[in-house]
């Protein structure tokens, strides 16, 4: 069988290569063996960090930069992407309220706010977007998305009619949610929230208990924050008859999933499914002979909504073989073989330091891709043109 068309659809290799850079490196390696093949590069992501860049690169969109309110209330540089001729805005909440915006010593999950996320949404509306993809993940916050809503005009009031201060802890005093001043343009916008977690808003598997400690929450803080989000969910259920507590993913990004459901009337979907749809990956696989994917680390968790498996499952619907390249292979990586990946190859040549692996990622990826093509050709599947 002659190789005619190869689809290359990796995620980013964190801290070393964007998804597009990884795809270009894989292509450059394959070209050493198959110089005349057709290469279709589709940068991918799973809804978390890198989603904006991947979709902007895949669809030739543009990046919009803006200064917004950071998680600790100070100005911070942020960004989002516009694709589909500006009709779709792709926003990573972490660009405005991510944990990387706070140092280990300054993390404050009680008071951190998603206000800047709302400011990015408002900017996207100003640019004419009528569809928003909101990536949930990597947050410094635990406010249920209430800061985001405040930036968009919502008023959160205590029993005295006073507006609550920003941050998740203040929700313990929530009595009334006033949506009358919410930006009316939201009524004409379709919002899809993207995540790779299924945690509910509250309880032992909820936002505060599972993700709060990595944001600096002590056990006492976790209890307070869980009670505050429980209060938020009860007020929403009481006054608006909407369950924001139990839907899978409502606990993502410090409860921003729940906030998106309520304030933005959003759906919550696996991030990789949204990226596959928006990038047109399935259509781009038509008439392909081989699919190559990959990311920085592949392990037992990869089967739970991560890019390589999402790409592989898409490829299997077209009955295509799939090879995955990884910066490193972790415990349980063999599980991916039951989810559509046919071969799994690490790109590092042997024991190396993390700094060396990151520094040489492009070279290692090119070399491994070339060797992959040689092995494929040796098996008789890929004769050169």
What does this structure look like?
The protein has 385 residues and is an alpha/beta fold. Strand 1, helix 1 and strand 2 form a beta-alpha-beta unit. Helix 1 crosses helix 13. It is elongated and about 75 Å long.
The span between the termini is 10 Å
Please give the CATH class of the largest domain. Alpha Beta
Number of strands: 13
Uncertain runs are none
Q: Judging from the principal axes of the Cα atoms, what is the shape?
A: elongated
Mean pLDDT: 93
**Per CATH, what is the topology of the largest domain?**
Glycerate kinase, domain 2
What would you call the structural class?
A: alpha/beta
Number of individual domains: 2
Report helical residue fraction: 25-40%
| CA-atom Rg in angstroms | 22 Å
User: Which band does the percent of strand residues land in?
Assistant: 15-25%
What are the secondary-structure elements, in order, as H or E? EHEHEEEHHEHEEEHHHEHHEHEEHH
CATH superfamily of the largest domain: Glycerate kinase, domain 2
Largest sheet: 6 strands, mixed
What is the tally of helical segments? Answer: 13
Please, what is the oligomeric state? single chain
CATH architecture of the largest domain: Alpha-Beta Complex
Family: Belongs to the glycerate kinase type-1 family.
Keywords: Kinase, Transferase
Organism: Sporolactobacillus mangiferae
GO molecular function, one term: kinase activity
